[in-house]
């Protein structure tokens, strides 16, 4: 009897090496006992040196290798022996895998299918909880897989949640992502997983809002989302009440009058757009509140469809400095106000150090709707493209006409493109006021969110000082303008 010990439950390379040596030594499947390191040894188990493969080779279909790599992740304790038996038979029947009714072939195929199904369930039913806040936050999830799929499923989460550090804890193994690579550590108990976090109520409200009672199929839902996964889902507590109330809700939906679809706006030629914007600017140059109300219904580009609301400018209409950012972020989109999130806090601190009172400046963004890509519970900022910047420029021009500032500070590449009407490099143009065609002066600098993204503490401190120096130039320009007046 040959006793083969593998390093782990998922040691495919070890199994493959041992199986090749056994087959080349003509060791029959009935003469092999497989186990995993750490398992209790057989009573009176003999010790023997590992078999070395003799000279020679043999071939099996590539399809078998692919099938075995997945099937070996099944929790069936006989999987190693079953795969070796199938390998042994393939040596004499190269087309064995084409016989779907063969018991060994059918069982291995069913195991691989079960593993793939469990991988899909892990992708669908992992729910991260936030540990810490903002820049120091880490996202942790607990999952209890039916098979050994953690390493198989981890790359999906690395791609989908590439912007956030996360850990998926399971009893078998734990996967971790630091923004650069996935690492695997031993499994842990559920007591080490976090409990509910501050985002779960938001998630439950979102789940309730997308629950469609008119399309409810309870049996299909239970098949796709078995109850064993419910205990780790924050929305699970809502499923039963939503199902019980589905009939009444569906009837109310039917009774409500149909809503009018959004009418597509006719695309204007660039010249007409500019003429229309200029005319609108002249018409409402003295009324920011009117502009804000009009902008709330803006449909000039597709960004309004996914954003919560238009985030218009805010501040004194008599402000002598107009700060232009790039676009609202997640916090701004929810609040409806510019620069209220982490970047806004960074800006407030820098303005104070530069000697500028934020209450006396007008703050806005080049693009008024939040552009993002969803990453689970997180909405990841996306840079606006040129058509979106151009479509929103009419609002900047009308704000400029209403405020009539002495100086416009463009923070970031998107803001510079809107202020100057063309792509404008930051480093090449920062550090000095620039005269615009309409007589306004502009100053170019970085966006505060750029400072937040810098991973190196020294670089962050250095760039923050440069940002403050740029704002001091703005403050100095205003003082000179005041003395001249």
What keywords describe this structure?
485 residues, 6-stranded mixed sheet, 18 helices, elongated, 13% strand
Task: Give a brief rundown of this model.
This protein is an alpha/beta fold. It contains 18 helices and 15 strands.
Structure description:
Strand 14 (434-435) and strand 15 form a beta hairpin. The chain has 4 domains: 2-121, no CATH class; 126-192, no CATH class; 200-254, no CATH class; 270-484, 3-Layer(aba) Sandwich (Uracil-DNA Glycosylase, subunit E), CATH 3.40.470. Strands 8-10-9-13-15-14 form a 6-stranded mixed sheet, sandwiched between helices. The protein is α/β, with parallel strands linked by helices. It has helices at 12-24, 62-71, 79-90, 103-125, 150-160, 200-210, 218-224, 236-244, 246-255, 270-283, 288-295, 330-335, 342-354, 386-403, 413-420, 426-429, 448-453, 457-484; strands at residues 2-6, 32-36, 129-131, 138-142, 166-169, 173-177, 182-186, 314-315, 321-325, 362-365, 372-375, 378-381, 407-411, 434-435, 441-445.
Give the topology.
Elements: E1 2-6, H1 12-24, E2 32-36, H2 62-71, H3 79-90, H4 103-125, E3 129-131, E4 138-142, H5 150-160, E5 166-169, E6 173-177, E7 182-186, H6 200-210, H7 218-224, H8 236-244, H9 246-255, H10 270-283, H11 288-295, E8 314-315, E9 321-325, H12 330-335, H13 342-354, E10 362-365, E11 372-375, E12 378-381, H14 386-403, E13 407-411, H15 413-420, H16 426-429, E14 434-435, E15 441-445, H17 448-453, H18 457-484
Parallel strand pairs: 1-2, 4-5, 9-10, 9-13, 13-15
Antiparallel strand pairs: 3-4, 5-6, 6-7, 8-10, 11-12, 14-15
Helix pairs in contact: 2-4, 4-5, 10-14, 13-18, 14-15
């Amino acid at each position: 009897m040959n006793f083969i010990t593998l390093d782990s439950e998922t040691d495919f390379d070890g199994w493959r090496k041992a199986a090749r040596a056994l087959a080349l030594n003509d060791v029959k499947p009935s003469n092999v006992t497989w186990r995993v390191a750490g398992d209790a040894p057989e009573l009176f188990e003999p010790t023997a040196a590992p078999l070395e493969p003799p000279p020679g080779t043999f071939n099996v279909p590539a399809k078998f290798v692919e099938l075995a790599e997945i099937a070996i992740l099944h929790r069936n304790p006989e999987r190693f022996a079953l795969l070796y038996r199938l390998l042994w038979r393939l040596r004499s029947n190269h087309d064995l895998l084409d016989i779907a009714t063969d018991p060994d072939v059918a069982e291995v195929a069913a195991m691989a299918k079960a593993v793939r199904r469990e991988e899909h369930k892990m992708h669908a039913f992992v729910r991260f909880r936030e540990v810490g806040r903002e820049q120091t936050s880490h996202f942790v999830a607990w999952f209890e897989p039916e098979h050994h799929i953690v390493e198989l499923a981890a790359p999906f989460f690395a791609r989908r949640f590439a912007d956030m550090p996360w850990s998926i804890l399971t009893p078998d193994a734990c996967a971790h992502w630091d923004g650069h690579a996935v690492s695997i550590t031993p499994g842990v108990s559920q007591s080490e997983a976090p409990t509910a976090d501050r985002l779960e109520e938001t998630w439950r409200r979102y789940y309730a809002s997308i629950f469609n009672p008119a399309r409810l199929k309870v049996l299909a839902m239970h098949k796709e989302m078995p109850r064993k996964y419910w205990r780790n889902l924050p929305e699970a507590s809502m499923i039963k009440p939503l199902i019980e109330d589905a009939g009444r809700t569906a009837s109310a939906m039917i009774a409500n009058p149909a809503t009018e679809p959004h009418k597509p706006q006719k695309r204007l030629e660039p010249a007409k757009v500019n003429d229309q914007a200029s005319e609108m600017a002249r018409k409402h140059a003295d009324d920011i509140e009117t502009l804000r109300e009009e902008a709330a219904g803006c449909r000039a580009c597709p960004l309004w469809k996914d954003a919560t609301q238009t985030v218009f400018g805010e501040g004194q209409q008599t402000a002598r400095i107009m700060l232009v950012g790039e676009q609202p972020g997640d916090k701004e989109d929810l609040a409806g106000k510019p620069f209220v999130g982490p970047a806004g806090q960074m800006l407030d601190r820098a303005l104070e150090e530069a000697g500028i009172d934020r209450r006396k400046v007008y703050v806005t963004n080049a693009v008024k709707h939040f552009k993002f890509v969803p990453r689970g519970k997180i909405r990841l900022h996306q840079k606006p493209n040129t058509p979106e910047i151009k479509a929103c420029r009419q609002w900047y021009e009308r704000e400029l006409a209403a405020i009539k500032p002495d100086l416009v500070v463009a923070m970031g590449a998107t803001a510079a493109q809107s202020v100057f009407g063309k792509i404008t490099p930051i480093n090449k143009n920062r550090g000095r006021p620039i005269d615009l065609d309409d007589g306004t002066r502009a100053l170019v600098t970085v966006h505060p969110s750029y400072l937040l993204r810098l991973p190196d503490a020294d670089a962050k401190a250095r760039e923050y000082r440069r940002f403050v120096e740029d704002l001091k130039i703005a403050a100095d320009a205003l003082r000179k303008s005041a003395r001249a007046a």
